[in-house]
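Standup notes
- DV: blocked on the single-chain target, sequence here:
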Amino acid sequence: MKIHLAAFPKCFMDELCIKRSMTIFDWIRMAKTLDIEGIELYNGFLESFDEGYLQRVREALESAGLEAPMFCYSPNFTDPDPLRRLEEIEAEKRAMSVAAFLGARTCRVLSGQRYPEVIRQDGVRWVVDAIHSLLPKAEELNIILAIENHYKDNYWKYPEFAQKSDIFLEIISQIRSPWFGVNYDPSNALIAGEDPLVLLQAVKERLVSMHASDRYLAGGTLDDLRRMENSVGYAKILKHGVIGRGMIDYDKVFAILQSVNFNGWISIEDGMNGLDEIKESANFLRRKIEEYGG
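- DV (later): unblocked, structure below
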């Protein structure tokens, strides 16, 4: 088992994507201070897809001694408008090209938003068809499409269409390709009201990457969370905590990873209170990686 550690700046999403008070170059400089080997990128961190700008990002990563193995993108393949679904496929292809240029091993795909008017049968078919259409591009770029058991993009109105594991597993069962795999997030299974370990057992053979996160609810319950889901972004009661201090049993997670000899990247999704929390999470995960022979 060979595991590499990356980090995702969840705490700086608005600064990087909305306010633009922080740049990707600022984040790279901060990431140098962490016990990690790479950073996970998100399309919103980038000011441009222009090749000259991307070349500067790649050089900054190389100068910092960091890789960019995972590219986090949020396609919306469940939009009821078929023209918008085609636009989402083209947008995913652009993201894949950017990911490959920056040296990524994986580029994330999702199902899309859980629109009230979209029935399950249609949503599953649209998602499977969209991903199948992307596989030739993935092969051309030598990049793996990694579908995540997701909760919700920071800037979406509705939660993930395939948030529940039965829909998620129905989708991935229909896509068999070396250019497609699973990015597993234990906390997202928890937020779906499911056992993270049961889902990991179900997808462990198809795992290509993982998000490490730990969640807790502040001032509410899972039922309260359900009532708050259909608004832009995350509900205020849903909190990311320091990894190892929340509701996820990471010893059991790592035991399952060890059982399949997982070789890939784990990206830290933590640090809502700043860089010190990301450092604590990195230290915790590094200890677990060493303990389980990674």
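- Follow-up: The longest helix spans residues 120-141.
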